[in-house]
Amino acid sequence: MTQLSPNFWQEKFETQQTGWDRGQASPQLMRWLADDVFNPRNGQRIAVPGCGKGWEVAALSEAGFEVTGLDYTPAAVAEAQKRLREAGLQAQVIQADVLTYEPAQPFDAVYEQTCLCALTPDAWIAYSQQLARWIRSGGRLYVMFMQVSRPGSQQELVEGPPFHCDINAMHALFDQRQWRWPKGPLTQVPHKNGLFELACVLERI
Ligand SMILES: C[S@@+](CC[C@H](N)C(=O)[O-])C[C@H]1O[C@@H](n2cnc3c(N)ncnc32)[C@H](O)[C@@H]1O
Q1: Most buried residue among 5, 63, 68, 78 by CB atoms closer than 10 A?
Q2: Contacts of 55 (CB under 8 A, 6+ apart)
């Protein structure tokens, strides 16, 4: 499968086909912040890969974290930087490909929201290995697994983005040798595009 290019996403931004964008930070992130699930005592340095317009970068920065947003699309980087500048926030947004980016030092956490599902599935192993390298031992991966398949619709499984993050496939991708999974069912987070995400916090072993 050919990787999607920054041009593909640039056109989406330029033609306002950004149906994934909530126009505000995800309610799940805000809940995690309110409930202290995101706690600066667990570390300050957080990356937000594929950060798009930067709503979550801004929310995390406002909550006092040292945030690095990453996106390889110029329009996304420009919009996220503008948002931060206008809000007087210190977070940085770097134009980089998540498949090749190497942080100078490990992150305490990554907030992953619809970057995985924006990558073609043949890049998922490489991306999950990147996340495992980026996050220090004991650090956290806050992840929203996008659910795309609907009953009776196999078509949705192959056509993306967004690509369906089947939960069994996610267990194989973020495997028990590297990640500690929570017990119990994952929280369903409805998305305005009619789909939903499964919210999950994984701990890097
Ligand atoms: C579906 S959007 C999600 C944006 C944001 N996370 C949100 O939920 O609003 C996917 C974003 O990932 C970015 N992206 C896709 N592939 C990427 C890659 N290989 N490296 C960096 N950014 C990438 C796109 O430019 C786009 O901004």
Answers
A1: 68
A2: 21, 22, 23, 24, 25, 26, 83
